[in-house]
Amino acid sequence: MAIRAYLLFCIILFSSYYTTFALYEDQVGLMDWHQQYIGKVKKAVFQTQKVGRKRVVVSTEENAISALDLRHGEIFWRQMLGVNDAIDEIDIAMGKYVVTLSSGGSVLRAWNLPDGQMVWESFLFGSKPSRSLLLTPTNFGADKDNVILVYGNGYLHAVSSIDGDILWKKGLAQSGIDIQHLVHPEESDTIYALGIRDTSQFEAYAISVRNGELLKHSSMELPGGFSGDLSLPTSDKAVVLDSSGSILVSISFVGGEIKFQKVQISGLLQGYSGAAELLPSKLAGMVAVKIDRSLLFVKVKDEGTLEVVDTVPHVEAVSDSLSFAEGQTAFGLIRQDGGKLQHTVKSSNDWKSHFLKESVEVDQQRGLVHKVFMNNYVRTDRTYGFRALIVMEDHSLLLLQQGAVVWNREDALASIIDVTTSELPVQKDGVSVAKVELNLFEWLKGHLLKLKATLMLATPDDVAAVQRIRLQSAEKSKMTRDHNGFRKLLIVLTRAGKLFALHTGDGRIVWSRLLNAFRKSETCENPRGLKLHQWQVPHHHALNENPSVLVVGTCGHNSDASGILSFVDAYKGEELNYLAPVHSIKQVIPLPFTDSTEQRLHLIVDAEGYSHLYPRTPEALDIFQKELGNIYWYSVDINNNLLKGHVVKKNCKDEIADGYCFESSDLWSVIFPSDSEKIIATSTRKLSEVVHTQAKVNTDQDVLYKYISKNLLFLATVTPKAISDIGSVTPEDSWLFVYLVDTITGRVLHRMSHHGCQGPVHAVSSENWIVYHYFNLRAHRYEMSVVEIYDQSRADNKDVLKLVLGKHNLSAPVSSYSRPEVVTKSQSYFFTHSVKTVAVTSTAKGITSKQLLIGTIGDQVLALDKRFLDPRRTVNPTQAEKEEGIIPLTDTLPIMPQAYVTHALKVEGLRSIITTPAKLESTTLVFAYGVDLFFTRLAPSKTYDSLTDDFNYALLLLTIIALVIAIFVTWIWSERKDLQEKWR
């Protein structure tokens, strides 16, 4: 009996221990939110069968395959491929499989259309890289309708759509040939592979579908050669531009005889001027030639001659031809005038007639139309209607039907580049409670439901209503600051050059702006964003101005490409100003100085080493001149294995001087020999990080002073052989080296080597410690190491009593040029997960314990207490060490399922984790982004400075009432007892 009672007690204790790490069902979504996206759509295939829910299957630039509901745009299912597994083609086979071709034509997969589960996977190997082509014929007959034709890596494969078996393969990889199309004429057992060799010779291969036998190989050379890709208006004719771009060439290839017919574009279009471009749209019986913003539609006749059908100005996008009832074909045109889209569906058979013409208003912040995909449906009156799936410049996705936008998706948020935060405005006095709270009836209803839940009288519907009220709480979604600092704006920059402001309360989009400076123009052909910086953060008591952010980008991928600077209001999203193009941008250095308007000074270094000061005002220049001797920075050149330190020297030379340009000089450099080491990772502390105390007192009353210089750089290198993938090098040939470098003097403070280890290395720095993750080839496991660095130059200040009484001047300035005497403590642990990214929690005062936030290979975020990575851990800690909180040493870091910040959710394509402190010291805000977004609040040391959201106020009130009654009753009893004593 005693043993049973003991076991029951242990079970109860164990259960109560783990529930402290879990969430109740009605707490989900109160402090966190999760949003799913797919990215910019590249290809789309509609599946609108007569029964079942209508859907469209898309592939995106984020390597996602997804089925979307055509009614609401919701995700039915989604599959994410690897970062290096780019999707080339997508189609639907046999009406039930989604077929994808990826990795340059190397991997063919079939996915179940209803639920997205993978049915089979085939690897197609070849000897020569080539473009990828996919063809799923539908007219082979009953015994051959299961064949999928794939061209990739120089080989043509016939693959069974039932099980993915390769039926046959044919090598077409010849020197200089570029196969561009696979053509299957109707009711034929022959497939044609069309291509161009050496830009001047047209090649046509006739191949048997049954066994892959080469039936005929024809070729013919065009004097002067071709330019651009082939267009295929019919199954027996191709059209291409000549090398000058002024002649259209019609090519007939069926029957083994190749014929060329040329026509001057100037003869088709009067007043032709400019460069011509053949659009890749697949139009039935015609081709579209783009000249400036106009489209020239040219019909290809049976004999191969070309005839102009029409010229349509200001066309943004053209869809592929769509076949519907009784051989009719149509295609869609999108013309754009500001925020108005004009959608026209024309007949391929009769150009003068059109099936649809409608106009719809869209937000101008979506930019221009990039792509359009057409689909038809049957209306209630048995006539045919058309819907258009439109991909916009900002990567958003719209469904246009019956003259209205049915739904839209903001899929630019799948490609976030950088994130910063902004405080919300202060709530003004005199605001009516009715404007920010629910009405009286809803308020009373909510409190009644909460009371029923407290007394455990609530039904499941009542519990759901309480959760809904909590999620829609005005306190959570108000557009003003809260006293705990939980409500903020997340300002995010996307790859499309669009800026979003997300509310941390519920993740909704407060505003969005497609920045003018990041739109393609004649002066900037390939704009791309780089970084976000806080530009102006006015104090709400001093200024009545809105905060603003600085968006930095370039006009290309080259180091000398022109730069882009855009200044955006953080509250309204208005682009206050932009500078483009400016000097090249190699590095942006936020300086710790602000002017009278609280604009932060920034130093931008160009590719030639010149430094440019922003903002360009006399006041900023005066502040910078006073601090000229204290401006240092460093640069890491991974390609040349070089680490350099720089300092601002003087104004630029007269020929480039503008008053805000400065020359710099190299202070020091560290060159790593390329034959022995390669730089693979660096890490530094956050400039905004707050350190609560510089001293750390051990259990033996010994004082250690943290080395908390913001100039400390962590740098990792590996031997050249260890650069390759994990497992491709032997442990004897692999070394990992770790350096701690002072970036002011270039002095190496600490160096450590790991034999038999290799990257990738992910590191995070905070206070006086660095944690980094790598792979141990000898143990065949991942490891995490921690290094803590302490300043021994203050070793004499070890009197704890003086430290407590404040007799030591810990605020005395410390110079990097005074040689530091440092000591390090380090320890390594095994870790079971591969890691994508690592971050650390940050709080307002730095008092709260730290947690490492680890983005795992499974796209989840794991919170690991820093105490597990304490280098002072021992196998048998003393009693004093146990009281200090030191955990007994184990060789492996523990991973508890309850420690996953993302719970059961996944942040697909996880790229980074951002943490920002709240005003409440116990709490930090965490934002993880990839293709998905996730936000939550964490309290690493529990909410010791506030009551939790699920605090039982009713029980507290009942307790107080019971105590008051008890006090009153005992007072009466005491009075009666005193009276009885006096009567005695």
TrEMBL record:
The chain crosses the membrane at residues 951-974. Residues 22-411 form the EMC1 first beta-propeller domain. It holds the Pfam family EMC1_C. One of its GO terms (cellular component) is EMC complex. It is a single-pass type I membrane protein. Its main location: endoplasmic reticulum. Residues 766-983 form the ER membrane protein complex subunit 1 C-terminal domain. It is found in: Endoplasmic reticulum membrane. PANTHER family: ER MEMBRANE PROTEIN COMPLEX SUBUNIT 1. Component of the ER membrane protein complex (EMC). Belongs to the EMC1 family. This is ER membrane protein complex subunit 1. It comes from Anisodus acutangulus. The lineage of its organism: Eukaryota, Viridiplantae, Streptophyta, Embryophyta, Tracheophyta.
